[in-house]
Amino acid sequence: MSSRSPKALELQQSRGAIPPQVTFARRTSSGRYVNYSRDDLDSEIGSTEFMNYTVHIPPTPDNQPMDPSISQRVEEQYVSNSLFTGGFNSVTRAHLMDKVIDSETTHPQMAGAKGSSCKIPGCDGIVMSDERGDDILPCECDFKICRDCYVDAVKTGDGICPGCKEPYKQTDLDQHSVDPRQPLSLPSNIPNHNMERRGSSKMERRLSLMKSTKSALVRSQTGEFDHNRWLFETNGTYGYGNAFWPKDEEVNEDKNEPTGAEQLELLNKPWRPLTRKLKIPAAIISPYRLLVLVRMVVLGLFLHWRITHPNQDAVWLWLMSIICELWFAFSWLLDQLPKISPVNRATDLAVLKEKFETPSPQNPSGKSDLPGVDVFVSTADPDKEPPLVTANTILSILAADYPVDKLSCYVSDDGGALLTFEAMAEAASFANLWVPFCRKHNIEPRNPESYFGLKRDPYKNKVRQDFVKDRRRVKREYDEFKVRINGLPDSIRRRSDAYNAREEIKAMKLQKETAGDELLLQPIKIPKATWMADATHWPGTWMIPSPEHSKGDHAGIIQVMLKPPSDDPLNGTDNDVNLLDFSEVDIRLPLLVYVSREKRPGYDHNKKAGAMNALVRSSAIMSNGPFMLNLDCDHYIYNSQAIREGMCFMMDRGGDRICYVQFPQRFEGIDPSDRYANHNTVFFDGNMRALDGIQGPVYVGTGTLFRRTALYGFDPPRSKDYTSGSCCFGRKKKSKSAVSSAPDDHKGLRMADYDSDSEMNMSLFPKKFGNSSLLIDTIPIAEFQGRPLADHPAVQNGRPPGALTIPRELLDASTVAEAISVISCWYEDKTEWGNRVGWIYGSVTEDVVTGYRMHNRGWRSIYCVTKRDAFRGTAPINLTDRLHQVLRWATGSVEIFFSKNNALLASSKMKFLQRIAYLNVGIYPFTSIFLIVYCFLPALSLFSGQFIVQSLDVTFLVYLLAITLTLCMLAILEIKWSGIELEEWWRNEQFWLIGGTSAHLAAVLQGLLKVVAGIEISFTLTSKSGGEEDDEFADLYIIKWTSLMIPPIVIMMTNLIAIAVGVSRTIYSAIPQWSRLLGGVFFSFWVLAHLYPFAKGLMGRRGRTPTIVFVWSGLIAITISLLWVAINPPAGADEIGGSFQFP
Fold first, then answer.
1. Parallel, antiparallel or unpaired: strands 704-707 and 627-632
2. Separation between Cα atoms, residue 47 and residue 42, nearest integer Å
3. Of residues 130, 369, 405, 414, which has the active-site annotation?
4. pLDDT tens figures, 584-607
């Protein structure tokens, strides 16, 4: 590890403070804690002042460093079995857990995996094990010994085996694998001279990615020497103003290095793209654009006619209608203009495999050269987000078709609940069976709940004879897994009650021994703690909250559920112990980490955005994947190759300028009629495809593959190569002479704060990213590893082939301790996290703002629609939940409009039509004001006997017909190029009016309250269905009252009564005004047709509404209409009903 900076050391010495310590300890069966013989981690928690901060393990006389080949692997084993906790002004502890869950775990990568016990008397440690979980026995006598006892024997016992009393023949455990067919996988492709430098700093080893190739690809495509690329092809590292330069004799001359002829052949080889842009057929898109223009002209002429022909009999009615129509025309323009250039895209996974996973002169072994991906799963409340749903999402990620050693999964539990923790541990245990089963039989989808719930034939296209037996066995194991997950709340409660009762008994005995029989025993109050499976207190939120153990007040927690896999494939075995035959299947599992950030009173934790930023920092420390996939806990991977599909765009030519790849959201469990437009296909298949033809789709919160450096706030590469050109269609490219004169040193890492002629000053990074030097050191590594493959001169800012084939670094305690420090509540103080770096704070729709900031810096995004849905999730089908979901989105849009993220303030790097799209995102909730007024206009017209025009003449009817026909034709063409269905388009129109008259209006009011009065808005989580009801659509019929329902109900009742009044008035009038009646009734029916799904939702389950309700509703409507006619009779009528007489 790198040491502290001089300023930090001077500050520490001047204070004379002793840094807090990280203590490794384990709990014995008797309840006693035993500390291990290792020095403490330096995890000083500074004040709010900035200083360069890292942690390290200093060697002491009692703890000399072991041989790296032994210590690193054993260290990782202990780290993965330890629960790390810490935070602000607290000690960073590593608690070694004997077991994580009550059930037995067998996979060697999993935390708490069972192993043999050490045979040293008085020691209850676990024997060291390899990737298969087999014991590593350093002596030929097969004496079982744990890591600490082995260290004592080697360092202080003269290397004598405690079993046979013979000296150990060698102390390197590399060759002591039990299974000779599968030796322990170490970084074998690292040259021998590098092994001598294994004791160097961790960042030096991370940056030593590959040997110098001395090829034509080392130079940039401009012909200038690429210092950034040389830095990563050699052993040079970034520093604060200087670099670590390798010695001349350390440059390795590999005999297998490709010759100049081979490299020239590589350069001349036909280059195959990874993606293709599929344009919409001209027969569809050309009429579509023409109709948009025609409708704009017709709208302009119609509005001009309306303004010049007022209704003198009802000016107030005319004025309200014309104001609403002007706004509707403006709103339609904002929505329609970004749709004029939609595109489709396709990927080529075969080319991706050929380029990155096929043997080549630069990659003779054929190991995967794909970059790493860190998958983020966020959850907050196990009561509203069932752990079984989250566990299934985790299992689909672990089984994804992506190189195992390049995939990592981080679960953010913002509630700090033990229930979520143990559910994740159960999922990790079940993954030992589920993931190899999916790989063996090519299972799709790889979410067990969805797979076993498929209604199609599961045996179709399966050719292996053992599939039926394997599927039956896995189904039985999954049923047991579900029972364990569903029983966790009761299990945790019973366990905690038992341990709390035991503690009370101990306290009473102690009080009796201390006080004796003379004093009356006082009642003892023992905190009702929540206990883990290893009989220790849970450091997170307790079931009965107490200080430092509640949802807003608990320590930071990191648990490596599944440690990083070995570098080489590890096939299973065929024996009686294993349930299935995995002898031909790779049984390795990706890295799985549980993270719960620290929360303390008095800190603004910024909801989901703060949790995501904590994951960004902790993942950078532990795995540093250059790409990050963000998923909600109820969105699972439906297509196991979805990550590869997204990687095609990132690794293609020009992919280094892509900030994220957005996948469409697809939902399960929606009622067949999609009553409330939950599928939202008009947005995902229409608007998002159209935005992809401009600068890219907006970020919608889940199913997004991010580039890490884009989230860090850097500008895209070659951002200075473009000038601010046309205000309508974005930027113009500079001339080649201007481009070639620009420096090439830091094109991959550049912020708008820096001029093109000045280099990035990394010494200022602590003020942007915080005071963790290890986090800052990972930034240039992520940038380099995220570059496309430089396999052709046309690829700019690329990396050499084979650069990412080396194994990842092993985890050690100092790394996890550093990850604990970056998720503490104080870390973001006086930094730019949430302002310019990471997910942006200040809005309930942090996703849209985050994407806007990236587009505003010149990045572009891509919309990836796969043949098989990439991800699937759940959506609220209940009317109340759906309205509250829409309310949250609309409130975020209002906040965006009144903030500095308003598209009117966008930079010149954002294209004009992209700016229009973002402007529409902020403005659309305000349409609700005009929409509600317009929905009442038909009723007011029928009540007053007037209409919005003087009379229904031919001109008005022609304009109305033209507007309606162009709208319908546009809808048909949009359906053609987007692939949606007519019914889905109509459902979207209906819910647009339902949401506009309810949630959008409330959002405008709440947004104005926050901006004007500073009243904050709190939202509840959208419930994720656990699927426990017998009826699949039971939630659809549940009526939960909310004030958002009042405006639509009033609109419906008013229009129904107005129709009755208008009909009665016209029938009973001496001179009926049929034209005015028809105009009012037509628009009233237009309103009621759009509100029909809302009315149907109020009726509950079909057939349960009593008939008497409809009878009384009709009688009340008739009575009210007759009363209105009696109060305000038609002109010229002296009695009720004119000439009509009651008998």
1. antiparallel
2. 15
3. 414
4. 899 999 999 999 999 999 888 898
